[in-house]
């Protein structure tokens, strides 16, 4: 995922230059219309699965039936293709009118003149207050909004209650700190000689990587802090990276790699199969457990904090609704985005998909409509939004991950010391920004 986003960001920089040089911006062209005179609004998404496509198309059909001015034409494009084709269409002066795009790179498209400035449509705080503040921050560039948050995610600790009972742990008291997490994990380990039958926990399984753990330890601050300063080699991040390395040393790379291969499959997922007792993943991982876990007895909890005196932090991402630069029908596109991100459509998306949505009222309404385990897990994700941080790719350092990740890998492999490696990465990113 991070490699895709890095490639996408660099591609956007090139396409931004092409767009700036293009004279075919489509201005003055007549909008396409249906036979009965409705303006056709092109809406691109990557939701083509048998689960999600009917849901987004139901929302589109409801909107089309609610008014007689426009017809929303939904176009599915595969993941990975949609954004590159969008940028090429912008450069050619023939983009879609609305697109679902990555939330963490909005500022890049704004800077490169690839998305419409929405400030003329959003002229009071009432609109933006509908959405989680952390999400709204990502759609603004130099004080103006260039997209509207659609959906998001957050990460939770999933734990096997049956395994807890077997290990003599209280299944209703998950670990709250890193120290407790380690202690629980050791009790949950099951070995036959030198071979693990069950691993209690390993911090890099699931979807919470080194960057997330370092953020968790450093008061929610990512590699670029809230003031825009590079903060890669802080003592908290160094401590976190050494802590991850200690898990590698204890469990052993051979055992870690033996388990890793099974994480791509739903049915053989080591957590669902009972081979891993605790794992951090997005809230929607619950649907995989529900569909393949055969009534698995599990719980969810916030990600443990580095210590009792620190706040716990999670990490999120998501997608936005955006009007690409050069849309033939920006006013009509905006009206559809308003509908798409309002309470009714967002609630429907949340309940039918079991997905976290950006609209606060819709998220809370979806929680009230769900039942049983669905309600329990979804409620935990909604509450977890209070401690969920997003870290957009900085516009002045689009390739910063490529300067950091190799040094982290070297530390985890035992080839370098954490403090030295992170200081070198910090220096490299600072130089990149200065240049």
TrEMBL record:
The keyword Signal applies. This is ABC transporter substrate-binding protein. The keyword Signal applies. It comes from Fictibacillus arsenicus. Residues 1-19 form the signal peptide. InterPro entries: Bact_solute-bd_prot1 (IPR050490), SBP (IPR006059). PANTHER family: ARABINOSE-BINDING PROTEIN-RELATED, DIACETYLCHITOBIOSE BINDING PROTEIN DASA. PROSITE patterns: PROKAR_LIPOPROTEIN (PS51257). It comes from the Bacteria. Keywords: Signal. Gene3D superfamilies: Periplasmic binding protein-like II (3.40.190.10). SUPFAM superfamilies: Periplasmic binding protein-like II.
């Amino acid at each position: 995922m991070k490699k895709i986003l890095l490639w996408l960001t660099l591609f956007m920089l090139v396409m931004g230059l092409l767009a700036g040089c293009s004279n075919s911006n489509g201005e003055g062209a007549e909008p396409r219309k249906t036979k009965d005179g409705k303006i056709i609004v092109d809406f691109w998404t990557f939701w083509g699965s048998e689960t999600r496509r009917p849901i987004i198309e139901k929302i589109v059909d409801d909107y089309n039936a609610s008014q007689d001015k426009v017809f929303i034409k939904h176009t599915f494009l595969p993941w990975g293709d949609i954004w590159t084709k969008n940028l090429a269409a912008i450069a050619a002066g023939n983009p879609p009118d609305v697109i679902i795009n990555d939330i963490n790179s909005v500022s890049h498209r704004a800077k490169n003149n690839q998305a419409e400035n929405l400030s003329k449509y959003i002229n009071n705080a009432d609109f933006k207050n509908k959405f989680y503040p952390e999400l709204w921050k990502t759609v603004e560039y130099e004080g103006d909004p260039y997209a509207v948050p659609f959906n998001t995610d957050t990460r939770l600790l999933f734990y096997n209650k049956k395994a807890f009972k077997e290990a003599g742990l209280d299944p209703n008291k998950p670990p709250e700190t890193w120290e407790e997490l380690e202690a629980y994990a050791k009790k949950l380990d099951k070995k036959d000689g030198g071979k693990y039958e069950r691993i209690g926990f390993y911090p890099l399984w699931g979807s919470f990587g080194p960057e997330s753990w370092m953020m968790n330890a450093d008061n929610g601050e990512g590699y670029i802090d809230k003031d825009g300063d590079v903060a890669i080699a802080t003592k908290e991040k160094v401590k976190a990276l050494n802590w991850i390395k200690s898990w590698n040393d204890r469990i052993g790379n051979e055992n870690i790699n033996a388990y890793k291969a099974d994480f791509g499959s739903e049915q053989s997922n080591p957590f669902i199969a009972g081979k891993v007792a605790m794992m951090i993943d997005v809230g929607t991982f619950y649907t995989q457990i529900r569909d393949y876990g055969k009534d698995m007895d599990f719980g969810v909890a916030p990600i443990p904090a580095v210590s009792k005196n620190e706040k716990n932090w999670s990490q999120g991402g998501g997608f936005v609704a955006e009007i690409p630069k050069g849309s033939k029908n920006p006013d009509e596109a905006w009206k559809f985005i308003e509908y798409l991100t309002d309470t009714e459509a967002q609630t429907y998306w949340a309940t039918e998909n079991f997905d976290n949505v950006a609209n606060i009222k819709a998220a809370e309404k979806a929680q009230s409509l769900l039942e049983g385990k669905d309600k329990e897990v979804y409620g935990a994700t909604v509450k977890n939004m209070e401690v969920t941080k997003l870290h957009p790719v900085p516009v002045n350092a689009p390739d910063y991950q490529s300067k950091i990740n190799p040094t982290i890998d070297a530390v985890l492999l035992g080839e370098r010391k954490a403090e030295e490696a992170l200081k070198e990465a910090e220096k490299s990113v600072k130089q990149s920004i200065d240049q």
